[in-house]
Amino acid sequence: xxxxxxxxxxxxxxxxxxxxxxxxxxxxxxxxxxxxxxxxxxxxxxxxxxxxxxxxxxxxxxxxxxxxxxxxxx
Length: 74
What we know:
With 74 residues, the chain is mostly helical. It is built from 3 helices and no strands. It has helices at residues 6-25, 34-51, 55-71. Helix 1 (6-25) runs antiparallel to helix 2 (34-51). It is globular, with a radius of gyration of 15 Å.
């Protein structure tokens, strides 16, 4: 039986979900319900707590900083 690299599968899956969240946050996926975006954020936050990486938390922070940083620039 082939050996399965679950760690790589987990990382790839999480990375894909984070990329989707970023696209949703930036409005690149067209119209999507706020609830769907919240559910994805909740799922990613839970993934962070399970793998103790805070990768999604860091992405949220970066998105927040980019949004607040762009508001005051001219």
